Fold these 3 entries.
Entry 1:
Amino acid sequence: MIRRSILFTVICLILHFLFIKAVKPHWKWKATQHQWQENIVKAQKFIYGESFSKRKVIVGSSLSNRLVMDSLEDFCNLSFNAKSIFEGLALIKKSSQPVQSVYIEMNMVLGGSDPSFSSSIVDPVPFYIKKYFFYLREENQPVGYVGELASYKIVKPVFRRMKSLFGNNHGKNTSQQSPLFNKMLKNHAFEFNEKPSEEKLDQVFNLLKKEITYFAEKNIQVAFFEMPVNKSICNSMRAVAVRESFYKYFPPQKYNYIDMPDCSAFLTTDGIHLSDTEAAIYTSYFKSSLKGDSTLHHPFQIVR
Amino acid sequence: MVVADNLKDFTFWITYPYFQNLSSFTLIFLLFGYSMQIFADFAGYSLIAMGLAGLFCYKFPVNFNFPYISTSFSEFWQRWHISLSSFLKEYLYIPLGGNKKGTIRTYINLFVTMFLGGLWHGAAWSYAVWGTVHGSALAVERFLKGKIKLKESRTISVVKGIIVFIFVTLAWLLFKLPDFSHVKAYLSSLKSNFFLEDNYAIITYILIYSFPVVLYHAAYLWKSQISFLAFRRMEYLFYGLMIFMILVNSGSPGAFIYFQF
């Protein structure tokens, strides 16, 4: 029984390997299952050097994860959902990538660091196993391939049919005008209207200062940018306190900033995350800010 | 543990305020997924403990005996977390008088035992309510048993099993969301989010990762049938597949759910 079980495992592994080699390059469906896995896949691609040609790196949270990367060809986006900027910074430090400049999102810096995230990627055992046995990487999990296909081909049509039988329409996407949007906006506004304590700010910004000093020693250029949010949050107590701390610890005379555009142009999907269209608008603004001035300053209306 | 660790990344959405963005159908599947996850997690590590003890020649008693096939609440508690339910029975229910002090006292004893059993999990109102809900179910079941005599049939057993499962699954919400206001918010979203688009990816992955737990229970029911012998002959395929899944699809590591209690 044990021998036959192991033999069957080996057969499965060989078939899986062949699938990844032969079918994956032509696979049009998404193979990641959830946002944690998307974060891991993105980090693995960076750490294993699959984006070596991209020497400019954006680090941030789910806010800058919305940036349209097709328009920013030279950039690698190490923005992770439900994470802060420190995970991206830790990966840059631990990788052998020749990074030239780092663009740091300012909005969600207070999230602090999650060392378990980067250690799950760069610790020697998972790092080397997944480096050499690439078919064991998260992006190659077999359920990811089955799941996405089953979702579109089976579950979605079956559920839609069932719902139409019960007289329920296909449902609506979360609209910016919906009561749900107002509820989410209210929740975020409430959260952002709480001023962070001085201790918390000092703790986070001293940690960030240490990271920035490290990059300066390595001659890596650093720039800061703030993703636009809903105007009711733009100048909230937390947003202002964080912004002021950035200017205090990293004076604009010494550090490069891409100034935030006027927030009133952005409604967002929930108060803090840009919609696809808004993300495209901001991405082109971000790009033009870089092109417009080599020192990365931009003559836009600024929020300071 | 592969099942529980993978389900964890989907049932994460049963967290305030994230679930407010999801459709009612998706929320129902999330609850189903959590029911499967909590079983896979807790029964999984109970089996690991039994296996480890076995290596040192200790034989630990079974802690989970296919609980989701239960057709009554009393049967559920004879199959779920047997070590705790035996403890509650011997050190609370029986000392309180058990069923020896009249009908009303029996109901009160069941209620009190489960209320305290709920509090054993933590000093939060939701755990107390969870225990109370189960205590009430046991009392009502006992009351109805004396009043209604149902004919034994497979259909009735299936219906009873479904009712017990739905009840138990809904009650897990109090475990996942120890803040009672969040439970209310979840139920309110469940009621009002029918107009939202379902998240088919979440639903699909919950169905896929729950399948082994469903199969595990189904195989137990199937065990007495002769056709099960053919299944037994191919058992090595399942073990082989399990090892393969551990290697390539193990999910993100997380603390065992019951470690918090």
Note: Chain B has one domain: 2-260.
Entry 2:
Amino acid sequence: MQSKTETKKSSSKDNILDKFLSAIRLTYSDMDISRTSWPATAPQIEAYFSDIIATTIFNKFKENYKKCEEALNTLSVFTLYASLYHTEITGLKVGKIFNGYPASKKEIVDFTLFIFNIIRKRIQGKIFCLDKTHKILPEKEIKNLEKKLKWTEAKNQAIKKEISILIISLENLIWSLYFDSFTCTGCERQGPYFVNHNKIILIRNYFNLNPKEIWPIKNKYQSVRMYLKYPQNTGIKLDYGNHIKSSKPLQNKLISFSIIANKKQITALSEIRSLSEYFSRLAKNQAEKVNKLSPLEIIKKGTKIYYYRYKNFFDYYEEDWQPSQQVYDRIDDLKLRWWNYYRSDRSKKKSPEYYVKLFDPRNDFIG
Amino acid sequence: MPKGKIILRGIPASSGIIEGKVKVINNSKDFSKFEEGEILVTKITNPAMVMMISKAAAIVTNIGGLTSHPAILSRELGIPCVVGTEKATKVLKDGMEIKVDGKKGIIYAI
């Protein structure tokens, strides 16, 4: 029989997991991800190795959780968010069910809570974004940033439009570099942060536009960081999946901006236009390159992208971040088995409850 | 088609009302035919369409949700967008004049 303390602990764990699953429900209710993901859905790629990477990380956690925490802290918080449910939960379930990996439900739950705790220490807002924000920076830092940054007024339609085009060219570039499912490898969206005079700041940070380890591209820009100020009533909300949801179109609402490409401040309309054109061209070429890949090449490239987002983690352990030979052998062995299995799945829109069940570490459901 | 008749319904993804000509994009060979100010109609957008998207007056897609690519980009650009119509590329034809109501998620004949 469970003691009162044990019952309390377990109900508190359930409470946290239920909140996490509420965030999953909210995020997936606005998605049609099983049909729209380009160039493939996440499971068409992840199914080949999710158990391998999940058990690798889980073993490190079991060996020395403090070291594992330090290594996980080298990753962006958005990578932790995304990897948590895609890798750790489903990967461990798959490892256990298909390959007899010895992880109990309790261990998977404890590992999930361990990652929640790491995330909690690194953010300012609510951990599961149920307040519809992704606040990473402390209020003091935002105030300093607001003072320190050089803000340019978005004084006319031409400049507002050009900034929108710059945003969509960067979003497309990120998408074409990291595929739809793994975009947090190169960008993050933070906020909205409330500042004075009923305004908010949204941060769009495109921090890796040049992943030479993945693609033979030549991009003269490594990063672009955009600080965008809007009226508080613009209705900007962010979900757990780091998607921006706004009740109103954003372009006309922009009040002022601060854009830093590499380390250079960009203010003039001509500079913004030149950047947009540059990134649009890169995105188009890169997407066309991806569209020419065979399914097997997409699986292998997607696998490499997936592992790449853990690069700092493996660097911390002084290990090679790249997928092991075991992963590539499995892909070569299984060929298009999972690709086709999940492709046929693409005809149906999945309900949010499917994902709630899939990402619940307390069950054995794997889709 | 009678004026004002509802042709399609979908998920309202970016508000705004606009009238314009349809251009159905089924594959990359169609990309060069797209002209500024046309209404982009496609199964779903992908990053190879970046230049087209920035020239579109509105976007209508067969599939997608509120956080899908066309929805996010349309809200950024401030253009109407209706996603998840299931059959836009079949029902709408090149050159058709339509009205897109991105707030209600309705496509009308005009």
Note: Chain A has a mean pLDDT of 92.
Entry 3:
Amino acid sequence: MGTHKKRRGSGGGGEADSPELNLMPFIDIFAMLNTFLLVSASFLGLGILEVQIPFLSNSPDVKDEPKRSFSIRVDLEESQVKVSSLWTAPPEEKAEKVYKYDDVEIGKLHQDMIDLRTKVPENDKVTVYADNTVKYEQLVKVIDNIKTLKDKEPRLNLPGQEGKTGASSFIFEKVIIGSVIL
Amino acid sequence: MASAGGDSNESLSLNLTPMIDIFSILVTFLLMSFSTDPTNHDVDANLELPDSVTMVTMDEVPSIVVNRNEIFVNNKKLVTLENGKVPQADIQQGAIMPVYLALKEIDDANAKATAELRGEAPPVDANGEKKAKPGEITIEMDKKHEFQLLKRIMLSGQQANFITFKLLVAKESI
């Protein structure tokens, strides 16, 4: 199969025949494989960012809301992002920070979101408000940095997430677009 | 090089090793990027998706597509945008009327299908309209659009009983 003998000059001891591999079948297979893979390849990976909007319901709220909870609000304006965090009951601790849309500042926002989640692990929700003129690209960039840990970042050690698969790649799992309300 | 019309008996032999090297590298690269994901979707040629580091893979084909000039729901063109904005005639209570009506139809169909699956009558709300559990919908939108357009689409969805939106993005890691 696939080999034939090639006559070579004598290397000592008369006329020695050395076998040579016939590469043509290999090339045929590779060419077929290439064609199939090129046709089926997807060069753009598609992902999703899940967001929620407020929903008004008549059904009674069965959950007991804690008396003191931590809320995070992110306001997107045309040139900057404002992050405010607040405890809802005394002792009230209110903090506000402003970031520009450049990579360095957005990186800081991302790190601050990780710190906020680590500080209050029970809160997994962020409410986002945006001005009408904010670009969709900017909104996705900010949500991305609020919601998802980057590939090489260590996963957060959050209580209640042991054994869960996939959940640990999130910083804040729930992002609510607060501006979408009548 | 062997002459074409000479009397030499020498035959040309092509060196195939570099060619096989190239093929091997190409096959390795293609095998690495080969996806066995059953959900396959071609992004609209007239839009550019925003980049994201999300690790959540697309699990359903987008129902709402907003390219640079038009809005489609389930591949049906509903609105033609004017400079990236919805024409005033199509707006009602902040929502986009044709989008709302199309989404309401989907919601009713979902409610009916769910009820049939469970073998019960479709649930109705106080106005006698069919009501299902709030649903989720995937949006594919051009990255240059303004938030106002997304807000209007989300408002239309909210009124048609959709409260979870999956924004389709291009994964940066690929």
Note: The first strand of chain A starts at residue 3 and ends at 7.
